[in-house]
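hey m, so remember when u said the tokens were messed up on ur end? i reran from scratch. heres the input so u can diff it against urs
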Amino acid sequence: MHIRSLPFIAALLIVGSTMGQTKGKNKNKGNHSPGSPHQELYLPVECHVTANGGPTDKVTLTVFKDNEVAFELSPEKNKSSFLLDLDMDCSYTVRATKEGYRDKTVFIDTHLPEDEIKYKSTSFAINLEGADKFAHSDQFYLDFPSAIIHWDGQNKTFEHNANYLANIQLKMALLGAQVETR
């Protein structure tokens, strides 16, 4: 009987990993708005950080929830990937910092339609660039988030806003071209 129940339990674990996630351990959890239909759900988000296109370490991640600091992950040697469990129905900004590099942010909107409870985890990558790379170019676009992640109702998943991503990447490429011609 114990042997037959193992495949059933394994199947439940697999199904649970692709459906609405229930709360686990995270410094962020527990500040849902009262009456939210997703009070017991969170969005698992994988964050990968590189510097100048290659591996890095000693990265600090600061997570802002609804424009207030929710928690900070301190730099560790040989660590540049993080798993964040973000409460549903909130707005987050994740800022990656490293000494000698320009800070970068990603905006994550975890709002989910009331009738949705199934979703998959999401991920993003940030490539940090030297602090002096854009010193002599227009600074306007440097303060914009590198990406925006939100619920896509058509695809029924959390994903990058493709239009925003294309536009900000184009602006950053143009700034990079200005730097290379000087």
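this time it looks ok to me. The longest helix spans residues 162-181. if urs says something different then somethings off w ur setup not the seq
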